[in-house]
Structure formats: structure tokens, C-alpha cells
Amino acid sequence: MNVERPARVRATIRVPADKSISHRALMFNAIADGEATVTGILDSEDIRSTARCLEGLGVRVDWPEGADTARVVGSGLHGLREPEDVLDCGNSGTTIRLLLGLLAGQPFLSILTGDASLRGRPMGRVIHPLRAMGASIQGRRDDTLAPVAIRGGGLRGLEYASPVASAQVKSAILLAGLFADGPSTVVEPAATRNHTELLLRAMGARVETEATRVTVTPPARLNAVSLSVPGDISSAAPWLVLGACHPDAEVTLEAVNINPTRTGLLDILRAMGADLALTNPRDAGGEPVADLVIKSSRLRAATVEGALVPRAIDELPLVAILGCFAEGTTSVRDASELRVKETDRARAVVEILGAMGANIEERGDGFAVHGPAKLRGAAIDAHGDHRMGMLAGIAGALADGTTVVTNDAVAVSYRRFWDDLARATGGVAVG
């Protein structure tokens, strides 16, 4: 894709549905009693991977190609059946890790795999606590990588102090805890997104939260819950950054999920002096939602670290672009989790923006950007990582000359990204 900087940016955008909630809406309703309709579901490769895996487990998922509504016929807590083939999770870490938690409670054999990228991402962080609960699990390379074979059942409750702040690890243990012989508790080093807790409560499970400690008590049943999925703040993030950094911009993003466990980027933008407003706040299926308005801003540097990191983990690479247009040095620390995503995102963002003229340096647990910098167009390989593809597109729309983005993989989470970029820039940016 060829990208150039437009003279102005004006747009009202309805970003794709929240990816985390879309995964959970399908998966949790699959083990509930009754039927559920999920409207506004994200139609992306990752969510389709979850749907196909559930179908492989005997769940009926009615979701026509291109539709934004899916119907799930729940099988109940104990109604899944042994898959006849390997479950292919594609590129989706959420699919494989949450399914491992769910399958830990099922008394049959399942084998889960994914594409080359997913097969290189860490699975031991989920395998080890699930094995401690009583599931039989084996993975490649000393039980740290996919493919993973699991035979579940006979689980015991546990209290687990997670060494990483990961909503996927927490969610896998909570899902396994639904099938245990007593309560299961996860204690995190920092709070992570809480969509699992909110939806399980809505379905009738007893889930108790105290600071970074979450406990689930096994229910007799879960009740199917229909819901409307709000917009994904991770998909809103590129437009927030484009609007703040472009010299003549105003972008409105409609119906975005502003769950406080996910809004780290909003706090970062405010700390950097961005002209950001939240309007029309409301509730959608138990999640807080608002419209976001971002305008051209004079930015100052900031340091992102500690408890803020897990609240903005998917958006942190975009902070590097903010740093390119801010006065001073913007640092991201405590973010070693960036290195175990679809690609090593700490290294990739330094490589991409460095090639475009940014004064950016890689650090062990993040990166630092010395601003302001004048970006220039370059040939960019996004390494098959959808977040890096969108980052390169936004950086190209802020740079002199032409940026050529290849291997962007944006369809994993945002099929319309390039179309929306063209529309936001009057057809100028994308060619």
C-alpha cells in the first residue's frame, strides 16, 4: 500500500467492534445454556478463528460471511464434544489461550495449533497454571509453544500469582476455574482488561474482584447473554494518533469502548497535552462507551511505565509516533510484553520509525523517542503484524514523500483500515 501525507484530515469513523469482547461473547456463550445473539461483532480473521474452533467442538455458530451479527447455540458447561481434527487458531493468541482454559475442564483430547507466528508465541504461561489445576497438557519445546495437546477434567481450584500482567492468562485460569472443585484465584502484578469478569458475571457466575485479585466460584450453569459489541479502542488508537499529530486534523470516533482497564492511551494522550474530548457517554452491554474527538495538538514528551503499561499494551507502539511529534524524550518502560506479540513489537517499531527518520532507540523493556522529528517516506515491511501495519500507515500519513507498506496483515483486526484512511484524508493518503 502506498501512503502519502494529506493537507488535512477530517473524518467521523465508526471503528470495528471490540476484538476482546467479540472473542469472549462467542466463547462464553458456547458453554452457556440457551441461545445468544451477538450484534456488531468484529468480522476479522481472529474472530473467525474462534468461531471455527467452537464449531469444531460441536457448537452451532450461525455467522454468515460478511455479517455483523452472530447467533450462538450454547452447549452448556459440559456439552462440548471432542474435536475430530486439530483446532486451528490462526494468528489469534486470544483464541488459543482462552480455549486452553475452557478445554482444561473437558474430559477429552484436543490439539490446538496456529500459523507460524502463533506457534512462536509463549504458551507456557498458560500451560503451567492449568497443569497445576490438574489438566494434562503437553506442548512443543518443553511445553512452552504450540501445537498444544490437552486432555482436561478433574480440576482443582488454585490460587495463582501470575508473573505477567496478562488478561489472556487470567482469563484462561478463570475459564478453567468454572470446572474446578472449588474457587480459583488469580493475582496479577497489575490490573488488566476485565471483559472476562464482566461477561461471566452477566451470565450468572460468581466473580469477585479486589484490586488485582480475581476469584471465580464454579457455577452450576451459565446463562446465555445477547449483547451489542462496542467499538474497539485499539482500532480507534491509530486515528487518535493521526488526529493529534497532523497539523490540520479533526477526527470523531463513534461508540468506542472506554472501559477503564483499556483506556491507557487516553491517559497518555492527556499527559502529552492532546486536544481530546469524550462526548455522549453511555452504556452498551455493561461496558462504558463514548464518542472520542481528537484535534491537532501541541504535544509534550511523557514517560509510560508501571501500571499504565497493561492498560495500553496494544497501543504502545503508536506512542512512539506521538513521541516523534512531541517536545522532549518520550519513553516506554516495563513493556517487555511487547516482545512476545505477533512480532517483537519493541524492535519492529524502532526499525519502522527509524527507517522513516525518527530518533528512536530500542531498550530492553521498551523504547525511547527523542522529538520532535521529521518523518520521511520509506519502504516498510510490517512483518505480518496488524498493529505494525496500521502504525506504518499512520506514520506514512504524517511523513514527507511516499511510504510503501507491505505485509501489513491489517485484516486480522481491521479489514476497512485502508479504506477508512483514504476517506479520512479525502482520498489523498492511500494510493
Task: Outline the secondary-structure elements.
Elements: E1 2-4, E2 9-13, H1 19-30, E3 35-39, H2 45-56, E4 60-62, E5 69-73, E6 87-88, H3 93-103, E7 109-113, H4 124-132, E8 136-139, H5 140-143, E9 145-151, E10 159-161, H6 167-177, E11 184-187, H7 195-202, E12 206-210, E13 213-217, E14 227-228, H8 233-245, E15 249-257, H9 264-271, E16 275-284, E17 287-295, E18 299-300, E19 303-304, H10 316-324, E20 326-332, H11 345-355, E21 359-363, E22 366-371, E23 379-381, H12 386-396, E24 402-406, H13 417-424
Parallel strand pairs: 2-15, 3-14, 6-7, 10-11, 18-20, 19-20, 23-24
Antiparallel strand pairs: 1-24, 3-5, 4-5, 7-9, 8-9, 11-13, 12-13, 15-17, 16-17, 20-22, 21-22
Helix pairs in contact: 1-2, 1-7, 3-6, 4-6, 8-10, 8-12, 10-11, 11-12
Question: How would you summarize what this structure contains?
Answer:
With 431 residues, this protein is of the alpha/beta class. The chain is built from 13 helices and 24 strands. Helix content is 29%, strand content 27%.
What is the tally of helical segments?
Answer: 13
Average of pLDDT: 96
Distance between the termini: 7 Å
Total beta strand runs: 24
Which oligomeric state applies? single chain
**Unreliably modeled segments:** none
How does the helix and strand content classify structurally?
A: alpha/beta
Largest sheet: 5 strands, mixed
* Overall helicity: 25-40%
What overall geometry do the principal axes of the alpha carbons give? globular
What percentage of amino acids are in beta strands? Answer: 25-35%
Radius of gyration computed on alpha carbons: 21 Å
